[in-house]
Specification:
single chain, 339 residues, Rossmann fold, 14% strand
């Protein structure tokens, strides 16, 4: 962690202790109008993009890069990683939206000490708009609380899906990074979301059962046609060497039986400071920015934001206008599940 970034994190920690009564408003330009897209329903009202802008985000020069965080089993620290990754990317000056897509245990708001007044379910029911749901998180990112609304997305009729995904697709145009915190296990909903992302981080720990479940998650994602870049992230490791050992074991099996390469996403060490931060309902990067896990999460953020993302841009398209955002890809995946 650089001195400048450490200072930035200290500033963010101080800012989150101050009460916030309003969100910054951005001026709208013609370039902020959503592009038309038949599948994702981007023909929804232009207010979708304005809602995201009014929540404190500006339109970047490219579509947001979506990173889905999944695990084969619960209890591996997936949501903590998602929250702190969002904080770390925000501290680097990136515009970040954390989408809580955990169907059963949506708790990103709890980890941040937040109490949402509305969730994605309210958007689905027509009781709220994206502007109402998108709330400021500690450290500068924005949170979309999921609740049971994530599961309900798969059962919407065409008109409802177009309206909701039309609003959500605005986030593709006004954020640099979308972090999607998925539920534990590999249900059809999890694989649909993960397959729509540009990168999937599969979180495991050094425990044998977690390693087995992590491999099972990778196998299931590939079997269901995921084209996302799949990376293994080892959490709660005793040291970097143990994390590397876990990765090598999984990589060897993946290459032998699944015939695909597996990338190392990183290693997060076991850190006694992390449970204290959870009890205080504060991200570890703001509670203890010099702790071992905070430093590792900062390295992960640089990895997610780094050259790999630029290479993904080049592979996907040279022309930005032909890029496909996460929510457009998600719409196609949901339609495929219904057909």
């Amino acid at each position: 962690m650089t001195t400048d970034q450490a200072e930035r994190l200290r500033q963010l920690a101080a800012e989150t202790m101050k009460p916030r009564t309003d969100l910054p408003r951005m001026t709208q330009s013609e370039d902020d109008e959503p592009r038309s897209d038949e599948t994702a329903g981007s023909s929804a009202e232009p207010s979708a993009t304005m809602d995201a802008q009014h929540a404190g985000l500006r339109k970047p020069t490219r579509l947001a890069r979506a990173t889905a965080i999944v695990s084969g089993k619960g209890g591996v620290g997936k949501s903590n990683i998602a929250v702190n990754l969002a904080v770390a990317l925000s501290s680097m000056g990136r515009r970040v939206v954390l989408f809580d897509a955990d169907l059963g245990m949506a708790n990103a708001d709890v980890l941040c000490g937040m109490t949402p007044e509305a969730t994605l379910e309210d958007v689905l029911r027509g009781r709220a708009t994206l502007k109402d749901v998108l709330i400021p998180g500690p450290g500068g990112f924005r949170l979309v609380p999921g609740s049971s609304g994530v599961a309900a997305m798969a059962n919407l009729d065409g008109l409802q899906r177009r309206r909701v995904l039309g609003q959500l697709s605005a986030l593709d145009r006004v954020a640099d990074h979308l972090i999607i915190d998925m539920g534990a296990g590999i249900s059809s909903a999890v694989t649909t979301f993960a397959a729509s992302a540009h990168r999937t981080l599969v979180v495991t720990t050094p425990e044998p059962t977690s390693i087995t479940d992590g491999y099972g998650a990778i196998k299931t994602l590939l079997a269901r046609g995921s084209t996302a870049k799949i990376e293994l992230l080892v959490n709660m490791a005793r040291n970097l060497e143990e994390g590397e050992l876990v990765y090598r074991r999984v990589e060897r099996v993946v290459e032998q039986f699944l015939k695909v390469p597996l990338t190392m996403g990183g290693t997060i060490p076991h850190d006694p400071a992390l449970p204290d931060a959870v009890r205080r309902r504060r991200p570890i990067l703001l509670e203890a920015p010099w702790s071992p896990s905070a430093k590792a999460l900062t390295r992960l953020a640089h990895h997610v934001d780094g050259r790999d993302c630029q290479q993904l841009d080049q592979v996907e398209s040279v022309d930005e206008s032909s890029q496909v955002g996460f929510f457009q890809r998600l719409a196609r995946g949901l339609m495929g599940r219904r057909s």
